[in-house]
Specification:
Elements (H helix, E strand, L loop, with lengths): L7 E5 H14 L5 E5 L1 H5 L3 H9 L5 E4 L2 H9 L5 E4 L8 H7 L2 E4 L2 H14 L3 E6 L14 H9 L4 E7 L11 H15 L8 E5 L1 H6 L7 E4 L26 E6 L2 E5 L4 E2 L5 E2 L4 E6 L16 E4 L2 E6 L7 E4 L11 E8 L2 E3 L1 H8 L3 H9 L4 E4 L1
Helix pairs in contact: 5-6, 10-11
Catalytic activity: L-alanine = D-alanine
Protein name: Alanine racemase
Family: Belongs to the alanine racemase family.
Length: about 375
């Protein structure tokens, strides 16, 4: 009995590495690039992605939760690993055990970390998170100096950096990015004089649109995986075209059949054949991340042509029309994301139809299907 699936997400190791090197080329010498591999590397497989990036010189990784960081460390990743989402104070000792770097924004968490570090006879580096306009995690700028002074009194921990995040850096002329960076610079200036102090606020959008915000380190997320944070890829000739989408999602046809004019397709008969037509049945549905919202509007590549989804997408199955395409048969490849011949469907194309963003599309496909890393 085989444990394989008809559906497969394929990730290009070379594309990941190329994107990382491109991001490196966009920042000044000496500015580090943190690879954000949270959410299982946006669906690309966190461990394999981190290994691919380590092979081209990446030494800093970022995840959301502590459990992700432990997986990375246990898999042999040797670089610095940041945990961005905070942690339960009861788990403070795990940071010490696995040499992890937390984003700190809570006195309670810092105190627990101090106790764990002292108990182990070790020193733990921390980076303070400050909220400069995102309205998410972080101490307020007015409280930053006092908070850092409080942390300085705690044995076993060492404040080695301060970080923040931009809400609109994907928009090239966003005033909030300029305002947020000004607030960040002012807050950091009050901590001047600290040795080897690392400041970081720039995400993918800022790397591409606001190079003056790079500071000492940037955090690359969606750009690592080949997509521009703004959405649709920039026009030909722009730097954004040097980003290479790393993920392909494909399946295979499991039945080809002819339907007469007027025949209903799928649940609710939301589509009826407008003429005698031929359809291909694909073993992929919303369980696999192919959103039900794409019913009657999604597209798939078969024999190098875009073909439309007909009827509602089911949990494990959908139907596409292949009328007029000769030679289509059971076992032929169908590409839901990626390139086939000269035709291509990107995560941005899918996101546009579902009212979402490429980030979600990649996570849905990658985290719901068998994955392989090429090369």
């Amino acid at each position: 009995m085989s444990d394989t699936s008809f559906n497969c997400v394929s990730v290009s190791r070379k594309a990941l590495q190329s994107n990382y090197k491109f991001i490196e080329s966009r920042v000044a010498p000496g500015v580090k690039v943190m690879a954000m591999v949270k959410a299982d590397a946006y669906g690309h497989d966190m461990v394999l992605t981190a290994r691919a990036l380590e092979d081209v010189g990446c030494t800093v990784f970022g995840v959301a939760e502590l459990c992700e960081a432990v997986i990375l460390r246990k898999s042999g990743i040797k670089g610095q690993i940041f945990v961005m989402l905070g942690f339960d104070p009861e788990n403070a000792a795990i940071f010490v055990e696995h040499d992890l770097t937390p984003a700190i924004f809570s006195s309670r968490a810092a105190t627990a970390l101090s106790r764990a570090a002292v108990a182990a006879g070790k020193q733990v580096e921390v980076h303070v998170k400050v909220d400069t306009g995102m309205g998410r995690l972080g101490v307020m700028p007015r409280d930053l100096v006092g908070f850092v002074k409080e942390l300085d009194t705690l044995p076993g921990i060492s404040v080695q950096g301060v970080m923040s995040h931009f809400p609109e850096s994907d928009v090239p002329d966003s005033s909030s990015t300029r305002d947020g960076f000004s607030t960040f610079e002012q807050a950091c200036s009050l901590l001047a004089g600290r040795e080897n102090f690392v400041r970081h606020i720039a995400n993918s959008g800022a790397v591409l649109n606001f190079p003056d915000t790079n500071c000492d380190m940037v955090r690359a997320g969606i750009s690592l995986y080949g997509y521009h944070p703004f959405g649709k890829q920039p026009e030909n000739g722009s730097d954004g075209n040097r980003l290479i989408p790393a993920m392909t999602f494909s399946t295979q046809i499991i039945q080809v059949k002819d339907l007469p004019k007027g025949a209903g397709i799928s649940y609710g008969h939301t589509y009826r054949a407008e003429r005698d037509m031929r359809i291909a049945v694909l073993p992929v549905g919303y369980e696999d991340g192919f959103s039900r919202i794409l019913s009657n509007q999604g597209e798939v590549l078969i024999h190098g042509r875009k073909v439309p989804v007909r009827g509602r997408i089911c949990m494990n199955i959908c139907m596409v029309e292949i009328t007029g395409i000769d030679g289509v048969q059971v076992g032929d490849e169908a590409v839901l994301l990626g390139r086939q011949g000269d035709a291509v469907i990107t995560a941005d194309d899918i996101a546009e139809k579902t009212g979402s963003i490429s980030y979600e599309v990649l996570c849905l496909f990658g985290n719901n299907n068998k994955r392989v890393h090429r090369e």
